[in-house]
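User: Fold both of these, please.

Assistant: Here is the first one.
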Amino acid sequence: MAHNKAGMNFKPLIHKLGLAVLTLGEKWFQIPDLAKAEKRGAKLTNLVIRFDKKHRNQTIANLALAFPEKSQAERDQIGKDMVNHFGYIIADFVRSPIRTDEELTASTTVEGREILDRLIAEKKGILLVSAHLGNWERFGQWIPLQGVTGSGVARNANDDEITERVTKIRGERGLNILSRGNAAREILTRLKAGEVIVIMPDQNADDAFIPFFGHIAGTVLGPAVIHLKTKAPILPVCILRTGPGTYKVVIREPLVANEGEKSEELMTRVNAEIEAMIRLAPEQYLWMHDRWRNARRKGLL
């Protein structure tokens, strides 16, 4: 784009838009008509992506890596649908303060509920592993309604003001949030007390380099290390959008370490579970993230 050739930096614009969404959210998104709010969200994300060449190109590159068997037209459609979906969930999140617990419960179906109930009854703590797939923020609001004590682990936004406002919304209608990078001891303590911890280990890291969608990707080892220390089962979970304001929680079989299994081997299985969940609704995954950056820099890709 001509703007980028001129050397313009769109990060300040994107941050200002982020603040605008949170500041004006009550007017734009906190309305009774959720479908209308979602459409407004999609219009906003489509506007932003027009000026964000970096993330457009990253989406194209990631989809080519993940789905070489699909045609370019199919991958392009996934990318377009992803932009719309991201708008839907932004609107849904900002609308959180006016959503009742009854609305949240009534709009959510559950696949594999018996698995979650069984693990809760065992009182050994649960390490819920999800991804930036579907509506992860809504999942953080659904879990406390299941009669469990839980916390989520999240990275702070690059902008302090955005972090503060997002944390405020999360704190009002969701899990207690632990800051990633400073949460290890707290996670161990809470799991040993039988609580639930939600973590999303699907972003670029440099702990280990293991397969993800058939390509080596830098991956965190945290969930495997925590499991090996606490024996809390790793439970793959996601929440997928099924229509305007309606969602399905998908709970898969828990993972536990095999005899003598190393953390890298266990995280390879975790990556496979995350990949399987993404394949359920690839248009609902955040393909804009540079998932393979560290592997590429190391010449592994």
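And the second sequence with its predicted structure:
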Amino acid sequence: MKIQDLFKIENAHSKGFEQHKRGETPFVTNGFHSNGIVGFIEPLKGERVFKENAICVSAFCEATVQHPPFLPRGNGGSGLIVLTPKTQINEDGLYYYAAQINRQSWRFSFGRMVIQERIARLPIEPLGKISLRLSVKDILPKDKKKQDVKVSNLKLLPLAELCSIERKYAPYINQLNLSAQKTPYVTTTETDNGISVWCNEKPNFPKGTLTISLDGQCGNAFYQFDDFLAGEKTAVLKLKNASDPDLLFYIGTIIEKMSWRYNYGIKLSMARLQGFQIPVPVDSEGKIDRDSIHKMVYNTYGSEVFEKYAVSTKHASITHIE
């Protein structure tokens, strides 16, 4: 059986993400990060917003399952292809077929990208012959009861006033002592909390700080739970007047939201990062509303893990810094 037997195959049509106003519709792009969702926008006139469950496939054969409504990236020569079922396929089935597509990504490359004709002929095994041992709903995070958050006032605060912003030089990965796994080495990688490798080197930054990628996927922000080593392509932020993991996590989220402005051609430099203005909830007295920030942080998936480990990073310091 082939993809064309089960799915209607369409090219996405939309403007670039940066050409939209903020809204409530997910904008889906290439890659797996955040399931391909780069942000939430207000669709422009004439753009195709999909209103049914579907699979989005990038030019490099990265398949993600999307729930309606969503707007897939369609501008340029490598826009998404959207697969909508010809007959009813449940959620488990969509994930099953998306996994089959991802396992065949080796067939495609920069010189042989995914196009309608190629994806149409991609072979797949029909779900009817397979017994699924586990439902997708058993794997996905469970919905958590969210706290009401009412933010009446936002104040733009210079990032440089909220945090110290620093970077240091460190050995390259091929120069590290790997005889023991004591210290995480944070780089510009987008996974595993920014950690590329664990090594037997002295850390040069303390836990309880925020790392920001200045290269690669510029603006990736990670809260660090261990003393760590980082080099010149990673900025490290530490709150100046407080030890508050929630606030630092919130700042990291805002930085990631602003990082779409930067890429390989326009990198996020230290000077540009120091010029960021962070919208922060404030109370009636103009002070940072930490209660609202706490509620926003703990309304997200995985917050219970963050809460468990973040406690140990308060007032953190390390005694040996290179």
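The chain has two domains: 3-139, 154-313.
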